[in-house]
Write a structure and sequence with these properties.
The chain is α/β, with parallel strands linked by helices. The protein is built from 19 helices and 32 strands.
């Protein structure tokens, strides 16, 4: 029923009028009603409301689908009504908003379907399209309804789906499809942005901008949509792309209302995405001229290019500081396209993510990281033998080592393509070179990497230098490292942050041994740990934590000394095969913490020899048996190494995805097994007897008394 203008209804009408929403009638039935707003044309009705009044309590909700506005209204404050009435109001408003949203989606989907049919049946716009000729522009990704020569401008969301169409008649009259989605929709052309993207209001403006600069363009269709489109494209393209918001200079409107709508909207959009702003200015002073197409036609494409070039050389617009301008951006899962993780080294070094590399002193963490950089620069082999699929640029920052005498020699010794290896050497500030500070200067690094063609790997040594504040406080660490995480995502590069283990942590969970706050390990998607054999030169690298891949397994490596050209002595890493087990087990195999003595290890060695005497055994069986026998797994791992026990997967060593097995070595090293001379002779005689070689064997010969004699079985 149509409602008389009661006090309650008057309050509701006034609330809507504040947003320039003026329905012709108000119906109090608790249902969603649509009406045309002042911006709607033709049959469009993007305004909506729901209202009810029981004589004691009135409430409603209203909005505008075009702008995304959605507001609630109530005739009384919460404390003026009973809890049950207030709860009823909340529930009704929620139901009303859900109904309005469902109806909006249905209408938009229907409009999108109709537009898709129109688009599919239209032909690419020819060069002689009347509107294009009148505006002096080409047809960029647009089509034409041949019967009327009407230009069709596609409107798409950030996933590329067609949401609606803009119709431009030969005389310049513009219409949008009724119920079509406008907010967040745009038309882009000119290719994928490499370093710069222009965003503007209208199609003719965008065409002139592209023709003048060659830059890709996104058309937002009206001023109120500029910020939404800019935010969507910033999220899609990342921080590395420079966004220039190209305003309409609405001088005529400003003279009447005091507000330059185009400039105000462009400024807000630029602030939202830390972008730049470009405003057309006209020599004639004619207020009827507003956009860059007007500038193109009145003063030429060079005038357009000059303004864009000038804007491109200025500082980005300042970030918004007024909390009233802030908004939470939410995306439905239905609007997100799942994508796989991109790996530089599969399962070990993810692109677009932060990886922490930690270890004790002497493990050669920097040399190890430079070895990985060398592999990436040449598309060589990773430590596990897999191939690097694509060469990439590497950027290195170190506060502890100098490029000339340490870092570059190690890269050369590792076989790196040094043309792809770059070093951060400072910041130029007011004409002076000052040290680069990763805790403050990451925003300046975004633009710098464009000059070297982008990077695939950034090494920060040490990562604690990126923390502004206390590295032991989680909030300080998270806040500081977020800039690095954002950088990795924006450039889709891997970041390796090198750090140390805290002292006295042997035997603890490896991830917990990373020095500083646990936030280092929590924020990183991958934590790699390195350790050195305290009884030799063997070193190991293991995965201590991974949110995106298996979190066990490792590789052995060694550090080698060599001399490169110029008589420069340096080090490099070589890989020594894959290792099975968890990071704790792998590190426990090489580290000593005093938890066992010689007798425990000898007992473990004898246990392992007895267990494997009658054939290979699965690792899980060995774990269970050793646990039942009272042997610590770390001690069993040490016994495995001292006996040279081999590990392999079903289907062949290092291959397949079957269970792991342990087997006794094919070579018996009598020195390693600590056999005395008599025992050795007896064993050798027994072995050779089995092989028919007794008559040729002299246990007392010099050749057979060597401490490292080996007999092939």
């Amino acid at each position: 029923m149509s409602l008389a203008i009661t006090d309650s209804a008057s309050g509701f009408i006034e609330a809507m009028a504040a947003y320039l929403l003026e329905p012709s009638e108000i119906i109090s039935d608790g249902k969603v009603h649509r009406f045309a707003t002042s911006e709607d044309k033709g049959q469009s009705k993007t305004g909506w409301y729901v209202f009810y009044d029981d004589g004691n309590f009135a409430a409603g909700a209203y909005g505008d689908w075009r702008t995304g506005l959605s507001e609630k209204w109530c005739s009384k404050r919460k404390e003026q009504v009973s809890p049950s009435d207030w709860q009823k109001h909340i529930e009704l408003m929620q139901q009303a908003k859900e109904k309005a949203e469902a109806e909006r989606i249905r209408a938009q989907e229907k409009a999108a379907s109709l537009c898709t049919d129109l688009w599919d049946n239209a032909s690419p716009a020819p060069a002689d399209n009347p509107y294009c000729q009148r505006k002096g522009i080409a047809a960029h990704g647009v089509r034409e309804l041949a019967d009327k020569r009407t230009l069709l401008i596609p409107m798409r969301d950030e996933t590329g789906n067609l949401t609606s169409l803009q119709f431009i008649e030969p005389d310049g009259t513009k219409r949008f499809k009724a119920d079509g989605k406008i907010k967040g929709s745009y038309h882009s052309f000119g290719g994928k942005p490499v370093h710069t993207l222009l965003i503007c209001e209208g199609y003719a403006t965008g065409a002139s901008l592209h023709q003048a600069t060659g830059y890709p363009v996104a058309v937002a269709f009206h001023a109120g949509n500029m910020e939404t489109v800019a935010l969507a494209l910033r999220a899609k393209l990342g921080a590395a792309i420079k966004i220039i918001i190209c305003a309409d200079n609405d001088k005529k409107t400003e003279s009447k209302t005091g507000i330059n709508t185009g400039v105000a909207a462009a400024t807000k959009a630029a602030q939202a995405v830390s972008g730049l702003i470009a405003i057309p200015h006209f020599q004639s002073g004619d207020t009827a001229l507003t956009d860059f197409n007007d500038l193109h036609q009145s003063e030429g494409l060079q005038a357009v290019k000059a303004i864009i070039d000038k804007a491109n050389s200025t500082a980005p617009a300042p970030q918004k500081t007024n909390s009233q301008d802030r908004a939470v951006n939410i995306r439905s899962g239905a609007d997100i396209t799942p994508v796989p993780i991109t790996w530089l080294w599969s399962g070990w070094l993810p692109a677009g993510k932060l990886t922490i590399l930690a270890g004790t002193a002497g493990t050669g963490k920097t040399t190890l990281a430079l070895g990985l950089a060398a592999t990436l620069s040449t598309a060589g082999k990773w430590p596990d033998g897999s191939h690097c699929l694509k060469r990439g640029n590497v950027l290195i920052w170190s506060s502890e080592d100098v490029a000339e005498d340490t870092l570059l020699p190690r890269l050369i010794a590792s076989g790196a393509d040094v043309k792809r290896c770059h070093f951060i050497e400072g910041i130029t500030h007011h004409g002076e070179n000052v040290p680069f500070d990763p805790s403050q200067d990451m925003p300046d690094l975004h633009r710098a990497v464009e000059s070297i063609g982008g990077i695939s790997l950034l090494i920060i040594d040490p990562i604690v230098s990126a923390v502004s504040g206390d590295m032991h406080k989680a909030n300080d660490v998270r806040r500081s490292l977020q800039a690095i995480v954002d950088f990795a995502e924006a450039h889709q590069c891997a970041v390796i942050g090198i750090t140390h283990f805290a002292k006295g942590g042997a035997g603890k969970a490896p991830q917990d041994r990373v020095i500083g706050s646990q936030a280092f390990g929590a924020l990183a998607r991958m934590v790699l740990v390195a350790a050195k054999d305290e009884e030799g030169e063997r070193r190991v690298l293991a995965r201590a934590k991974s949110n995106i891949a298996p979190d066990d397994g490792g590789v052995a490596y060694n550090l080698n000394v060599t001399t490169i050209e110029g008589n420069i002595e340096t080090t490099y890493a070589t890989w020594d095969g894959a290792i099975e087990g968890t990071a704790r087990e792998i590190l426990g195999d090489v580290e000593q913490d005093g938890s066992d003595d010689g007798s425990e290890r000898k007992d473990a060695e004898q246990f392992l020899k007895d267990l494997l005497a009658d054939g290979d055994k699965p690792t899980k069986v060995i774990k269970a048996e050793s646990s039942d026998a009272g042997h610590a797994w770390r001690t069993i791992e040490r016994a495995k190494r001292s006996l040279s026990v081999e590990a392999y997967r079903e289907g062949g060593q290092g291959k397949g995805k079957g269970n792991w097995f342990w087997s006794m070595p094919k070579v018996i090293n009598t020195a390693k097994n600590h056999l005395d001379r008599q025992d050795r002779q007896e064993k050798n005689v027994a072995v050779l007897t089995d092989f028919g070689g007794l008559n040729e064997f002299n246990p007392d010969s010099d050749a057979n008394q060597q401490d490292h004699m080996e007999i092939e079985l």
